[in-house]
């Protein structure tokens, strides 16, 4: 039997107090909607329909052609939202998973269990539920004296007695597809919020004598529905624990897993060591044996085997084997460091390639440069790559020695084995094997200091 899926993502998310639609807020590096979509994909649905409305185009772009979309122009409630999918699904045989776009922690495995439970019990509707310590805000699962589910009641419609119920509706369900759309014809706006509630189909099925049931999640954390920024932070924390636990089981050392922030798509090899307050974002990849010390922040980069990154920031860059970086280095996009490079404190590099074993130990800016192997940059070297309008390139050969406080004015070529004198301003190409000196000669005025009032002789 075919599976179909409907993801509800049309709401504004008023309680988020945000310009961004709620389902586009990030949890561990991807939007809540993508988390939900990935879990849903575990079921391999024959069709996935996402209901969009508030800032529809923005939401559509996130899933692109992975999903079909239907518009819900006015957000009249979750039941109304599902009705929008009727044109795509109503005449199909099979079962349909309905899930809210704001429940990013529900796993694919739990959805599979829900579908299996639904099938083996031959239900018309099965609700994914959880036991909450504090159920406030969620729809509650009402059961009769035989423990059978009879209805779902929303927080705002719940009696005092019903508010005591701790079993909550996660907002995820499996339905017989055709019967779902039949039942939706009967829902009304007769409730505290004046909305068409999807949850009302449960009592409609029960009253018609259909078989309905609930599959309870083992872990309440999975069911978290994100309605405000407090819940968003909780979701982030739960996801962080999950991600970090996963990495630890795969052989990565964390000195403080509570305070290590790793996006969901980051790839880390065994025997990497991560100290506290390390942040790894986007599509970052860390190879085996690398050590990232406290405070290191890496975005969309590859860190090679055995590299040591000390308290530094790295963006969209590639760092080779056994490279050492930092403390306090900033590697900006398109930096490529080959094996054995050393980049020390207060060094900024952008759009540049440094060959094997090249060193820039202190206080240096390298921008738009191609640098050979075994080059040494003295402290305070600056590539002057920008004239206010255009950017220019610097090319440096192998075994070049750049003296401290050199100003290298691009476009510029410094050829193999050349040397620039400390304090030079270099604005013309330097041939191979030469020494370039571009600074004023020193003049000593003997005895002049004797005239100064600060001289010990004058006090
Ligand atoms: C809903 C459930 C509640 C459950 C909770 C779980 C209903 C009536 N209530 O409440 O029982 O405990 O989820 O998190 O279903 N949406 C639309 N169109 C709309 C309204 C909502 O697409 O017209 C989407 C929202 O974008 C969101 C999802 O549906 O992704 C859930 O809507 P939300 O308003 O957050 O429902 P809750 O009040 O949390
Ligand atoms: Ca919600």
Task: Give a description of the structure.
It is a single chain. The chain folds into two domains: 2-223, Alpha-Beta Complex (Spore Coat Polysaccharide Biosynthesis Protein SpsA, Chain A); 252-440, Hexapeptide repeat proteins (UDP N-Acetylglucosamine Acyltransferase, domain 1). The relative contact order is 0.07. The chain has a 16-stranded parallel beta sheet that branches. The protein has a nine-stranded parallel beta sheet with strand order 14-17-20-23-26-28-30-33-36, with no helix packed on it. A seven-stranded mixed beta sheet has the order 5-4-1-6-10-7-11. It is built from nine helices and 39 strands. It is elongated. 18% of the residues lie in helices and 30% in strands. The protein is of the alpha/beta class. The longest helix is centred in the middle third of the chain and has 21 residues, at 229-249. The structure holds uridine-diphosphate-N-acetylglucosamine and calcium ion (CA). Residues 8-11, 23, 51, 72, 75-78, 80-81, 100-103, 138-139, 152, 154, 168-171, 197-199, 225, 227 line the site of uridine-diphosphate-N-acetylglucosamine (UD1).
């Amino acid at each position: 039997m075919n599976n179909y899926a409907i993801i509800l993502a049309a709401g504004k998310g008023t309680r988020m107090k945000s310009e961004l639609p709620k389902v586009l807020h990030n949890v561990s590096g991807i939007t809540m909607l993508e988390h939900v979509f990935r879990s849903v994909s575990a079921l391999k649905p024959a069709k996935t329909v996402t209901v969009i409305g508030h800032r529809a185009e923005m939401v559509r772009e996130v899933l692109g052609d992975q999903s079909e979309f239907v518009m819900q122009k006015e957000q009249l409630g979750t039941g109304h939202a599902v009705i929008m999918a009727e044109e795509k699904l109503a005449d199909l045989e099979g079962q349909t998973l309905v899930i809210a776009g704001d429940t990013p922690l529900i796993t694919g495995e739990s959805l599979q269990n829900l579908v299996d439970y639904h099938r083996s019990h031959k239900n018309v509707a099965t609700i994914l539920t959880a036991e909450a310590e504090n159920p406030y805000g969620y729809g509650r699962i009402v059961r009769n004296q035989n423990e059978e589910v009879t209805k779902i009641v929303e927080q705002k419609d719940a009696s005092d007695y019903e508010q005591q119920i701790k079993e909550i509706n996660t907002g995820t369900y499996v339905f017989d597809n055709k019967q779902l759309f039949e039942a939706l014809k009967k829902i009304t706006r007769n409730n505290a919020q004046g909305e068409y509630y999807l949850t009302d189909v449960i009592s409609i099925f029960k009253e018609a004598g259909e078989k309905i049931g609930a599959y309870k999640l083992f872990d309440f954390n999975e069911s978290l529905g994100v309605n405000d920024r407090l819940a968003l932070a909780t979701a982030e924390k739960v996801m962080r624990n999950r991600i970090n636990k996963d990495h630890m089981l795969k052989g990565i050392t964390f000195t403080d897993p509570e305070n290590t922030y790793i996006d969901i798509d980051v790839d880390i090899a065994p025997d990497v060591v991560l100290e506290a307050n390390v942040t790894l974002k986007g599509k970052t990849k860390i190879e085996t044996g690398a050590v990232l010390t406290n405070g290191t922040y890496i975005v969309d980069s590859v860190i090679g085997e055995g590299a040591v990154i000390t308290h530094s920031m790295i963006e969209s860059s590639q760092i080779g084997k056994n490279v050492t970086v930092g403390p306090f280095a900033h590697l900006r996009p398109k930096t490529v460091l080959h094996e054995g490079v050393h980049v020390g404190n207060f060094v900024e590099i952008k759009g540049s390639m440094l060959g094997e074993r090249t060193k820039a130990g202190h206080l240096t800016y390298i921008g738009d440069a191609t640098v050979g192997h075994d080059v040494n940059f003295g402290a305070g070297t600056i590539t002057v790559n920008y004239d206010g309008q255009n950017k220019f390139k610097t090319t440096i050969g192998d075994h070049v020695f750049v003296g401290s406080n050199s100003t290298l004015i691009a476009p510029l070529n410094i050829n193999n084995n050349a040397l620039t004198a400390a304090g030079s301003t270099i604005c013309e190409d330097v041939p191979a094997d030469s020494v370039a000196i571009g600074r004023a000669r020193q003049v000593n005025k003997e005895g002049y200091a004797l005239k100064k009032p600060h001289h010990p002789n004058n006090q």
